[in-house]
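Researcher: Next entry: Succinate--CoA ligase [ADP-forming] subunit beta (Maricaulis salignorans).
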Amino acid sequence: MNIHEHQAKAVLKSFGAPVAEGVAIFSVDEARAAADKLPGPLWVVKSQIHAGGRGKGKFKELSSDAKGGVRLAFSKEDVVKNAKEMLGNTLVTHQTGPAGKQVNRLYIEDGADIERELYLSILVNRETGKVAFVVSTEGGMDIEDVAHSTPEKIQTLNIEPLAGVTDADADRISDALKLTGAARTDMGSLAKILYKAFVEKDMSMLEVNPLIVMEDGHLRVLDAKVSFDGNALFRHPDIMELRDTTEEDAKEIEASKHDLAYVALDGDIGCMVNGAGLAMATMDIIKLYGAEPANFLDVGGGATTEKVTAAFKIITADPNVKGILVNIFGGIMRCDVIAEGVVAAVKEVGLKVPLVVRLEGTNVALGKKIINESGLNVIAADDLDDAAQKIVAAVKEAK
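Model: Predicted structure:
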């Protein structure tokens, strides 16, 4: 689960991280009052969406030369003016895709005198099984270009889980970021604060970009992006309250209600599969034959007819889907249950695109019998390779 910048900063501040004062607003009427609460003379007006690249983003509704989604304001009047331009409009960044995201809230923040911009993030290093700090002296809006062009400027520092962040670890981070004086002293405590927040709140990623050295020599978290492990959210009701469903795909929200593992993608072939590994293989073979999957969908090993029906309805609700591939290998999951769910869903929502079904495993004969006697216009497949070729061909023919 992702949260907004202002929420992430509030979480980090509760652990003792240095952040600027700021106020979240949801309407233009709140803009001046927010500015009044901050000292000025510089305010920063920040769009709050679940995507990076806001500073270089463009608003669909504004002229091409308009400022991005993060703006400096040198008067309270400018704060209000920027709020009027940004709230309710669609911000397009390299992470949102061309559709962009509507800006429904802003964060008005006190400005800072910046001497240096650094990059710092914490994540789980899957190669070592340890939490790691990823740092670079090249912080700011172009960190992706740094990673691509000069990866040697990004360093990964693993933390021993039993020891946590030690003074020696903080020194390693400071050395990597070339910190001296007050900034180096600050890192001695900040590294431990961020690590503590990461572990105690079950974060999957904590990104501070930029982490700044101010002109007075001290560190400040200027931007923060935080994601949480969805499997651990039951332990954090305070974090669950921060969820903004307007930033999430409606199909993914519906899938979560039925305990379905669903991720929306950009392709046009909908997939219903049981098992995450088989789902990945199904997506791969669709790409192998020249098409793109519209989703990842694992109905799980113990799905009911109702759950399968819900999954099928979610797939058909995607207007980008031009064909559907059902690929089931019945172990714990029974093929007849899948067949009953597919038939029930089609009878309820209709079938306007080609449907290929490949069933194998437990009760496969009964599952095929249910499909064959349903009267549905279904293309049967013998194996995964056959199924992938048939759905790709059917979609191309339909176009």
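Model: Note for the record: The chain has a mean pLDDT of 91.
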